[in-house]
Amino acid sequence: MKLAASEKNRLEEKQRAVRKYNEKNHIDHKPAYFVEWANPDDENQIYFRYNNLYWEKDRATHDWGRLPDLYSEQLAEEVQEFLENHKS
Known about the structure:
By secondary structure, this protein is α+β, with helices and mostly antiparallel strands. It has three helices and two strands, in the order αββαα. The protein has helices at residues 2-24, 54-61, 77-85, and strands at residues 34-39, 42-50. The chain is extended and about 45 Å long.
């Protein structure tokens, strides 16, 4: 149980660091498997449509290289550098 809690905490801290980096650098999150689609009947309503990349490409080839790294121990180099320069 302690191992699971520790891993959960590590993943959450990593997600917070990446979110903080993205916010400071004005980087918007883009879903990997969906694209925004405006409702033609109501332009204020945004939907997300599946983009045919998961089953048709990534899962078929087992190539996850374009997805964010969630599980490794290390943060991306630019995120780590950002955190070191912006310690609060």
